Amino acid sequence: MTFPELSSDRLIVSLDPYARQFTSASHTNGHFVNQRGGFEIEDVAFDGTTRRVQRSSHVDLTLTGGHREAFADWARDFYATAMQPADMERELAAVEYPERIPAMMQLLEDSEGNLWARHYKLTGTPGPETWTVYAPEGYLLGTLETPERLQVRQIGPDYLLGIWTDELEVRYVRKYAIEKP
Q: 7 lies in a domain?
């Protein structure tokens, strides 16, 4: 079987900015699931029954001009070697944006049963990560930011453990203290 040679002038890119994401995390008695796109997290037992639904409206998910510009910047950078600038701009002009951005990218349960939801952030966007934390009973405990370039792996009663990547892409294991009021 032979494949036709692709050139950058024939490259068709299907750009789907801010596509809704399915996010889930296992816990002792089932799964936390976010599948509707907003700050709505279902606690689903292993038998498939929904035990509770946590809803929050503390984050504005309306897509803004800043979101559009951030996506365009990301796309130009990502496809820089695959597309000619004029082709990229033509593709960007045809992009259909949703009305809302996704709410979250990751769910984690800490050692005390609190649920941590990492807010959505466009890949490659600089800055810290924002998390919303819920108590085991479902009420909102608050929000916090973790250091830029930190991938959180474990959350204990008074610490956060993760992999931090420096500017040269070297990875380090880091532990941060969690100070509670």
A: no
Report how far residue 40's alpha carbon sits from residue 140's, in angstroms, rounded to the nearest whole number: 12
Q: How far apart are CA 172 and CA 181, in angstroms?
A: 29
Instruction: Quote the number of domains for the chain.
Output: 1
Owning domain of residue 33? 21-63+98-177
pLDDT of residue 3: 42
Whether 110 is in a domain gets the answer yes
Residue 59, pLDDT above cutoff 90? no
CB–CB of 163/146 below 8 Å? no
pLDDT greater than 50 at residue 76: yes
Under 8 Å between Cβ of 8 and 91 = no
Find the DSSP H helices in the chain.
Answer: 65-78, 85-94
Tokens read off for 18: 């801010």
In a domain, residue 88? The reply is no
Percent of the chain scored above 90 by pLDDT? 39
